[in-house]
Give the backbone structure.
Amino acid sequence: MLPVAEGSDPDEERRHREKMARRKAVQDAEVASKRIEKGLLIVHTGPGKGKTTAAFGLLLRAVGRGRRAGVVQFIKGAWDTGERAALRRFDDLVEWHTMGEGFTWETQDRVRDVTACERAWAVAAAMLRRDDLSLVVLDELNIALRYNYLPEDEVLRALAARPAMQHVVVTGRNARPALVDAADLVTEMGATKHHFAAGVRAQEGIEF
Amino acid sequence: MLPVAEGSDPDEERRHREKMARRKAVQDAEVASKRIEKGLLIVHTGPGKGKTTAAFGLLLRAVGRGRRAGVVQFIKGAWDTGERAALRRFDDLVEWHTMGEGFTWETQDRVRDVTACERAWAVAAAMLRRDDLSLVVLDELNIALRYNYLPEDEVLRALAARPAMQHVVVTGRNARPALVDAADLVTEMGATKHHFAAGVRAQEGIEF
């Protein structure tokens, strides 16, 4: 049995109501002040978990609204992931390209990595010209930029020239400062606590 | 046309290969050292965007693996969201309960909020006893705890007593220190840059 709510005291009730009424006024004014609608350039970076995961959460939200979306994975190879399997139920709305060859320390071959990134970028650049795509996820593009596998200026130009209402999510650690400058929304995922440090392994359904 | 990869210099090629070989050795040793498999208590907190979104990304990953999952939304009311609409395609795997009455500043009624949270908690507690659920998302539970709408000790006891392989994701700002202590994985979503500050409004397919 749960304890009785503190709210049974009428004075506290009134204080709560007044506080929340003030909060609502601030909130409503804030909402009313925002009028711009535009395609957002969103960056998920930082050392914590959740960068790619949150990008696929956004994808889910978009397809739930019946919008078309594209995904290009720059680093990850063709291994099968839970999110890939799940999004097969949305093949009518999602175009998915896994173009990487695996992590750079797996291939150990810079030329091969660069070639894979260039191929992925060609697919991504084509998506950034299509106004039927409401959302484009460029997964781990930050890694490709960080290792100079792709020319930053060309990537930034293509992002800037995309259709006005197209949303783009770029993921990966160590986002380039110029990309952060260009972005509308940057979330830094900080690893406050990570189970790998406690000896827990990567598990199906959580990490992949 | 993209510039020729820097990797055409054989010396640089060799250095890259050696560096990545060292990195791979470290990486492989790290992976080998992690042997524990367990249900994770995951907390997404912080002021940035992506807390709930990343939780639904994890849900997508889990259902992609054919696992069953449950969702309880403690604060959000019954308004329709993109993720809710999308996950209807997984009604065979996902049980979804939106139990809130809206944000606390919308209801302005503490007793009503507490009652809604208690009702939501009863559903959540039942999920935390079921070993057929691989993942349970407790969306905005942190808010309910922060306002003392639920007794923290009872919530922590139920989390600790859940099936050993069940993963739980708790979202919301201002996670309680005791919850962070109990968690296996805590990601703090930091708002490095937010488009609301630039006058951009909440848009369908991105915010909801």
Remarks:
- Chain B touches chain A through 99 residues (CB under 8 Å).
- Chain B has one domain: 38-190.
- The first helix of chain B runs from residue 10 to 33.
- Confidence is low (pLDDT under 50) at residues 1-7 of chain B.
